[in-house]
Amino acid sequence: MKRFIIERKLPGAGKMTTEELQAISKTSVAVISILGKPYTWIQSFVTEDKIYCIHEAENENDIREHSKCANFPVNTIEEIKAVIDPTTGDRLQ
Q: Residue 2's Cα: distance from chain center in Å?
C-alpha cells in the first residue's frame, strides 16, 4: 500500500475539545471498517486551523472515498515518497 498525507482545512481545529477529537477518531475508524478495502489510518496532527492525516491506501481514490463517507474535508492529498529524520544522514548507503 502507498502512504499519503492529507491536508484538511478545519477552522478552529486547534481549539477542538477532547470529546470532539474522539468523535472524529471514532468516525474515521468506523468508516474504515465498512470500506471493505485495505486501508489504515496511521496518525493525525492537529494545528490551529488544519488537520494533517497520514493514511495508507492503495490509491488516492480510496482516500477520497473514506473522506466522503466520513464527511471530512479534503484540501490536498499527496503521496509520501520518502521519510527522513535526524538519523537519515547517519545511515550507511
A: 12
Site of grid cell 491506501: 57
Model confidence pTM above 0.85? yes
Domain boundaries, the chain: 2-82
d(CA 18, CA 60): 29
What does the pLDDT look like over 8-45, one tens digit per residue?
999 999 999 999 999 999 999 999 999 999 999 999 99
* Sequence-ordered list of residues with C-beta below 8 angstroms from that of 36, at least 6 positions apart, any chain: none
Question: Domain spanning 2-82 has what CATH number?
Answer: 3.30.70.3090
State how far the Cα of 71 lies from the Cα of 82, in Å rounded to an integer.
Answer: 29
